[in-house]
Amino acid sequence: ELYGLRLAQALDPARFEVTVLALWTHFLPIERHYAAELHERGIPLRVCIPFHGSLRGDTIHGLVGALPHIHALRPHILHTHTEFCDLIGLALRRTAPVGALVRTAHNMKEWRGLDIWRRRTETLYPLLCDVEVGVSRAVVELLDARPAARLLRRRARYIPGAISAERTVALRSAGAVRDALGIPHDAPLFGA
Prior knowledge:
The protein is of the alpha/beta class. The protein has helices at residues 2-10, 29-40, 55-73, 83-95, 115-128, 137-145, 147-152, 165-170, 174-181, and strands at residues 20-25, 45-50, 77-81, 100-105, 131-134, 157-158. Helix 3 packs across helix 4 (83-95). The longest helix has 19 residues, at 55-73.
């Protein structure tokens, strides 16, 4: 979410009329903080539905909730982030007045545990998205390696995320990272 919010805030208001459309809300304090930031900058925020705890069910409700907003806004560019929101973007592209569809991929592996969805969307995204963006070079390489992207000669754009995890970790010793995270120096660590 932060990537999309920072992008919305960075766009020149003289050239772009930006509205942030949140598909759902969890009613968290950080969401209220972000809403206040957008309000201070004069960027409208619209929320479709409250999150009920089921990504699949809330994705369908988010799509239904987004339709009236998209019909009212008639965006020239619809920019989506994350797997479920990207699916809603694809559906909106087919059913609502949307100009260009821009999708930003943040993860090296999308649809964890749902390989059938990964296979379906890796074919659909190059066909239906006008632009795909990766927040790291590794993500861009994965996007460009998909068979549909290669066949269509569709290349993803690289727009780095605001935080370089590799650079941040490289600047710290293992002990400093443990201290920052509150992990004792003698505690074993396991990664997944």
